[in-house]
Amino acid sequence: MKKRFRFQWGAFLMFCVYGGLFFLLFARFLFIQVTGEVEGRPLAAMAQAKYERASVLSADRGRILDRSGEAIAEDTLSYKLIAVLSKKASDGIKDKSKMRHVLDREKTARELSGQIGLTYEEILDLLNRQDDPDVYQVEFGAAGRNLSHDKMKKIQELNLPGIQFVKDKKRFYPNGMFASHLIGFAQKEEEKDGTVKTVGQMGLEKTFNDLLSGTDGKMEYKSDTWGFLLPGTKEKVTPAVDGADIRLTIDKTIQNFVEDAMNRVQNEYSPERMSVIVADPKTGEILAMSQRPSFNPETREGLSSNWLNEAVQYTIEPGSTMKIFTLAAAVEEGVWAPNDFYKSGSYTLYGTTINDHKKAGWGYISFLEGFQRSSNVSMAYLLERMGDDAFMNHLRDFGFGEKTGIDLPGEASGVLNDAGPIERLTTTYGQGSTVTPIQMVQGATAIANGGTMMKPYVIEEIRNPNTDEVLREGKPEEKGNPVSPETAKTVLEAMESTVTSEHGTGKIFALGDYSVAGKTATAQIPNGRGGFLRGNNNLMYGFLGMAPADDPQLIVYVNVHKPKLPAGEYGAIPVSKIFKPVMENSLKHLNIRPDEESGTEEQIKLSDWEGESSSAVAGELGAKGIEPVVIGNGGEVSGQFPQEGTTVLPGGLVILKTEGPAALPDFTGWSKRSVLAFASLSGLSIEMHGEGYAASQSASAGTVPGSDAPIVVKFETPDEQHSAKEEAPSDEEEYPLD
Length: 738
What we know:
Belongs to the transpeptidase family. The protein has 738 residues and is α+β, with helices and mostly antiparallel strands. The protein folds into four domains: 9-51, no CATH class; 60-178, Penicillin-binding protein 2a (Domain 2); 252-595, DD-peptidase/beta-lactamase superfamily (Beta-lactamase); 604-724, 2-Layer Sandwich (Trypsin Inhibitor V, Chain A). Helices cover 31% and strands 23% of the residues. The protein starts with 8 loop residues before the first helix and ends with a helix.
């Protein structure tokens, strides 16, 4: 029988479905083959992205250095703590001691709580996220970041499974509370693209953030799916570009003298605020600048709502230190007659009466005595003699009422109150008009520098460390000659008499080894309601001093606001406890000879001795009373310190470099500058600890160390050395007699 054909609908449908899928797949393959794209994206690019990897090469933020190149702010290696929670991290590992995720949450929390700033409960709460399959690892916030190498090693020694570290960088401020409102601080911030970058928040760190910030590099390479470099491929490296280095005029040693003195006064008198500036009047360089309250930029401890650098951005009524410039104006106008007499006590102008700080006055006294006693009335009579317009014009010549132009942001200009005769009268003794501390220092450079006023500056240079190109350089800049050399000399002598005279208000500021010229200030503080605060504890006390008086090498300006004075003390005492140690120690640090020595000894100008016999040069120096130090075996001189043209006093030090290994000298009594010069010329690695002058060294004199063997030299300030001698027991104290 012939079979009857039956159409199989099921088979037909299956054929259509699978046939259609086949043709769709074929068309897709054909489309990809022809166009090379998938979902609108090039297939080759997708493949390249899959196998091409990149790792970031982190750039260093630029350093902030003192004048000698010692770091004030720099990047340093730190570590970030993480805890791996996912069990997937330990897949395939059977040995529990090698597990890569947290096994014992309680133990881990207990051990870590003793190492980072989180409690056991806080850490355990973080680790309990282990039950969430979407959480692979957790971090510990600020407490787990910026860990030092020592802290990282201590945690590693706990052998806690799952606890790992990621290398990171942090901004490091090795000196703690050190010119903090000048330097500022920087901290990490998350960018819009999710990356984390260190950004300056205040001070120089913020002002020069763009220059300090480096540009990260990257290393690109092709790898397989497991991350291994593919054969035949090469790495492509885009190097990181480090940020620029900023070298300041700040002298780290002098700055530490300032910080130490301010800390002592802060602890003893608890003033509301203080500010100190130390400057070189010959150049305008700022050698130290600080204020209180202040803060530690490393921890931000003590940081308040006041982010102003008060030396530059905060205006004050300066009080009697303004009399320096009133006197200068009178001398310049030819109306200063120091031996003329006037009636002290009070002075009335248009119904307004001003008084001396002793209201009854001292009777008829000379104008010189009036300046020594800080008489307001004497200033009134000087104003009367020279005229208002001449007086105000001279103050403008000194730069008051306008910015100095110092290389720092946000400088205030202050206000010269020229509204009327009463305002001009009160300005003569520093009330009514406002100034910034940096304006006072700038004006004082003209008195200290023979009439030539120097513009203050704090940035020595900004250098690109990648190319060694100097991007910006600070240099001494004259701001004019507000007074003649004769006037400057006359004012300087009058200022010195306030310290040496029987009637002088500055007697407490006299130094043991150096003569001082200066002027005290006691200023009322505005109460915000048109009047002034009352009482000895509600005044601002200050001193603007320079030394040595015959040829000032340093200016120190100190302001102390509202100190809590014990019974029997007056406001100049806390000011002197800052000025005196800062000025005396700084002059000694700079090798400025004391008065009794400098007047009798002749300065010796150094020659260029390169190529000459070291023994002959050493003999020549020795004959002049200069101590020669020869590096090497002798022979021809190939380098020297100080350089040609520098003047040195007998008893000074000259280093001569020759060929051969360097033997260590006895560094005792050497300044940091001299030790740094020896290290540079000899090529030896010398670590310096402390401030002041060399007191001890780790290797004895005559030793010839290797170039890679670090030598440690300990420095002590004159005060520390003096204290050590006082505290050393005598033979009788150590072995008392029966």
